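Worked Example 4.2. Consider the chain below.
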Amino acid sequence: MLRPSKSMIQRYPVTSDLHWLVATLGATALMAFPYVLNRLVVRGTWGTLRNPAPNDTPLAAWAQRAQRAHYNSIENLAVFAPAVLTLHQSPHNNAIATAACASGE
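Applying the procedure from the previous section yields the following structure tokens:
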């Protein structure tokens, strides 16, 4: 396993704002699994892999809600990730900015 050297860790520390960005990215990636598993159960392997058609069996109500929540999270990342990365490079990176990243507002 590759491990970063101590000098690299000192040169590129992971700040709280970047920590929360990575946590948000991970949570967004994991949000897809529940509704994809429901698609596998409802439509089978090939039904899951092909493009949805109007006559496909509908997903369970909770899976449809999970899918909409996942899409919403992806749309919010398009604004959140560039804002965090810009703030990280600016001189205004402070405790208030970190708290905003942690609270999701």
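The chain has one domain: 15-103. Residues 15-103 form one domain. Compare this with Example 4.1 before moving on.
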